[in-house]
Structures are given as C-alpha cells and as structure tokens.
Amino acid sequence: MDTEMHGLAGLVHTPLFGILLTLISYRFALWVYGKSNSLPLFHPFLVASIPVIVVLPLVGVNYEEYREQTTLIAFLLGPATVALAWPLYRQLHTVRSVLTPIIIATVIGAFIAAGISVGLAWWLGAPQDVIASLAPKSITTPIAVEVVKSTGGSESLVAGAVAITGIVGALAAGPVFRLLKVNDDRIRGFALGLVAHAIGTARAFEYGEKAGAFSGLALGLCGLVTALALPWIWPWIAGFLS
Amino acid sequence: MIDGLLILLFFQFLGEVVIRLTGLPLPAPVLGMVLLLLALLLNAPFSQRVAPAAGALIKHISLLIFPLGVGIVLQWDRYQDNALALVVAVVGGTLLSLVLVTLMLKLLMGGKHREKGGDGHGH
User: Fold this and answer.
1) How far apart are the first and last CA of chain A?
2) Angle, nearest 10°, between helix axes A185-204 and A209-241?
3) Which chain B residue lies closest to A159 (C-alpha atoms)?
4) ipTM of this predicted structure
5) How far is B97 from chain A (nearest CA, A)?
6) SS3 labels along A175-234
C-alpha cells in the first residue's frame, strides 16, 4: 500500500480525493434539488449520498477511511453548531412578547418528539446505542450529532435518522394540518420546526414568512432544550432501559 | 467572513474551556452556541460580523452532514438487525410526533386571536 500511495491509484487514498468526491456529490445534489423545486424527497442529504455510496466501494475506500479523509469537513460541524445562535437570536428578537408560551410549548414538544422515538425503538427491542441515536432525531443535525457524542449513540445513525425525520415531517405536514384543521400559520410553522427541524422549516416557508419565522424559532429552541436536557437525563433513561 | 469564523471558533473554544473546567455533560459547541446567544442578547459589538460566516455554514449544513449519513448504507451490517425498529421509530415516530405536537400547539396557542392562514396557496 505504501508504494501504491505514490502511484496514480494511490490518489484515492488521499484527503483530496475524499473531499473532492464530497464536494462534487454535494454540488450535484444542489443542482438536482433546484431542478425539483426543492422537493423534500430530493433533499441534498439523500441525493448527495448516492454518488459517494456508489464510488467508494468501486475504488476500494471503506467508510472509516472516507471519514478520515473528510475530517476537515466534519470539523466544521462544531462552528456550524455555534453559528445556530445567530438565527436563534434574530427570531427571539421578533417574538419577545410571546416568549413564555413558546418556551412552554417547546419543552413539551421536545419531550413528545424524543419520548415517542425512544419509546417505539425500545418497544421494538432496539439496543441501547440505537435508542440513544434516535432520541435527538427531531433536532437539527449538528446539535443532534454533538448530543449523541455524549449519550453514546452512532453518528451515522443519528445523521440518517434526523434527515429521514425531516423529510417525513415535511412530506406529512400538509395532510396532517388538513386532517387536524390547522389554519394558523404560527402553529404550522412551530410544529414543523419542532418535529422536522431545518427541512421542516424550508417547508414552513412555503406557508409564508410568519410560518417560516416560527419554524426557525422552534428549530433553534427545540435543539437547545434537547441538547441541554438530554445529556443529564440520558444516564437515567439508560439505567431504566438496561 | 474571517471575522465571523474567528468569533464562532472562539466561542466553541470558550465552550470547551468551560466544560473542561466544570465537567458539565454538555457538547462544547452547544455550550458555545449558548454563550454566543447570551453575548448577542447583551448586544455584543461584534453581532453583525457573525452573520456572513454563520449564514454560509448554516446554508450548507447538508454538506457537513451527509458524509456521516452514508455510513448507514456502507456499514449496513451494523444496523440491519434493528432495521424494523429503526424504520418504525423514525417514520412512525415522526408522524405520531407531528400529530401530537400540532394538537398540543392548538391547545396552547389556538385559543386566542385565531388567524386565517394561507390555506390553499401553500401547496
């Protein structure tokens, strides 16, 4: 392998290859997403994964090696999480007068969203590390990935669970709101942001600016509440599960 | 852009410092986010400088995330035993959560000044 590193074939074992593959796949996914008029089913998370999943086995790079190649990209998740303070600050500013009911709704909602996924996974006999990966699935991915690091779940699993949650939530929102006769844009936005994080927020903006703003606020607050509560509560839940 | 990145990394570092000193069981970037939010609420003079870097990172969050997600497929042998639990918890759990959260919000927020939303032109 060491001699191979210098030949042309060894190129696939360099960070340059992994990062280039990642960026090309993402660029392609953005193009597809634009062409589809931002359909949740064609979300860049799903589409960008396909070329990577196809190419890596073909060139003989396994997932661990790919993760090492793309360390630079993974590193940016940290500052991206810190960056969420900015939109949260802007949304908080606009709804200061109704902050108390909003925070109460966030705490109850975060508890419902996390509790249901934990409960279902436990009921179906999933092991503890899988349950730990599902608990933060309704919150925005960078925070969810950080939370999972402290509750001992799988980063891959949580990234996937969060993305699918967002897509399912965004797709189901229309029928659910019609069924429950919800006409209030604040409720539509808040529910979407709480359950389906950023993908739900993109959907909420289709109902208008107000729904989008409430969704962004719910996304930020729900992520914050879950991230602050789960690492404390988790040892207790884990004790109950085992 | 550089100023923004510097501020974000500084607050992440600050979060890391606090966690190492106190042993809080929180992720450092989350604590960094809380500290930055507090600084912004206290009208820190650099608030406008955060915007470009924060906006760029958040806009392209999928780029940072999807390399993690491909692990589900490439390491499927790790997860296949729990496939049913995963699908039911993720898909069913999301639908159930959406219904319950919407009902809860209707109860909490629906009573007062009910508004006519954009029914009909949202699809």
Assistant:
1) 44
2) 90
3) B69
4) 0.84
5) 5
6) HHHHHCCCCCHHHHHHHHHHHHHHHHHHHHHHHCHHHHHHHHHHHHHHHHHHHHHHHHHH
CB A143 within 8 A of CB A81: yes
Q: Token pair of A48, please? A: 């960008």
pLDDT in tens, B91-117: 999 999 999 999 999 988 765 544 444
Tokens of residue A95, six digits = 């709804």
- Please, which pLDDT band fits residue A6 given cuts at 50, 70 and 90? low
Where is pLDDT greater, at A213 or A59? A59
Q: pLDDT by residue (tens digit) across A137-159? A: 889 888 898 889 888 888 889 98
Residue of chain A with shortest Cα separation from B75: A63
Q: What is the pTM of this model?
A: 0.83
Q: Indicate the domain borders of chain A.
A: 4-75, 82-241
